[in-house]
Amino acid sequence: MATTAAAARPQLSLQVRDGNFDGLDGLDPSLTWSSSTTSGDYDLEVGVDVAARPTADIASLPRSAWGKATRSFGAWGVSARADIERENMDNAAIEVNANNEGDDLSFKLFANAGSSGGSLNNIEATKGFTSGDARVTINPRMDMSTRDVDATITWDAGNTAVSLEANRAAQSIKVTQQVSDRTEVSVDANKDEQTFTVAQQIDDQNKVTPSFGLRSGKVSVAWERDLGDDNSLTTTVKPDEAIDMEWKDSAWTANINMPISGTSIDGANISVKRDVNF
Length: 278
What we know:
The protein is 0% helix and 71% strand. It has a 20-stranded antiparallel β-barrel. The chain has strands at residues 3-7, 11-16, 27-39, 42-51, 62-73, 76-85, 88-100, 105-114, 117-131, 134-143, 148-156, 160-166, 171-178, 183-190, 194-201, 206-213, 219-228, 231-238, 242-249, 252-261, 264-265, 269-275. Strand 7 and strand 8 form a beta hairpin. The model is unreliable at 18-24 (pLDDT under 50). By secondary structure, the protein is mainly beta.
């Protein structure tokens, strides 16, 4: 039996909580870490998310943990993952995936298992095939508790893509057209709203994406600034809703959400995270 192991570099996240605090009490740092190993035919992975703060109650530090096992059965690659949250240690969320690349076919199963028993929540399948110059995918899904079925069908021919979603209550369609090397237009429509979006690459560093809700009249504008070396700053403005900013700088990622009402900013929610090498 051959066994190998590898540990991924931890990621440190820093969340700024709402409210007024003395000193650094408003900071809510967390540390995520994962490791992988191979044992026989199985690839095994585990991970944890722990609070990175001083405390005498060590048991309060873990927030969540997960484990995953993967192996092949003939043409099928099968994986099973279990996630446990601190708030509900007696219950695990289970996800099982089976993928056959040769047949372009995959299945997913979502369930819960715990001290009070288990339940099958959702199942879905995805089948892909080529039609002319386009790739077509069909993705039916079923909610096992309600027996509701919905499906997504996509048709992608490179410059033009169409996605159709349907269930018992509603249907929606999204059409995307690459007009030129710098311009992409999309329409996302359902019975409640029709949204028209234009993504315009102004130059090598700047991209502007306005969206218009044709029925609601809602407007949003996103501006993405390329800062070089895979760094970027993206600002999205939604009048009377929020201003969102995402700043990626090397290993750091900062997100700022500022709810707005008219010209007033109603506080700010800030999170900062980075990859840390040990």
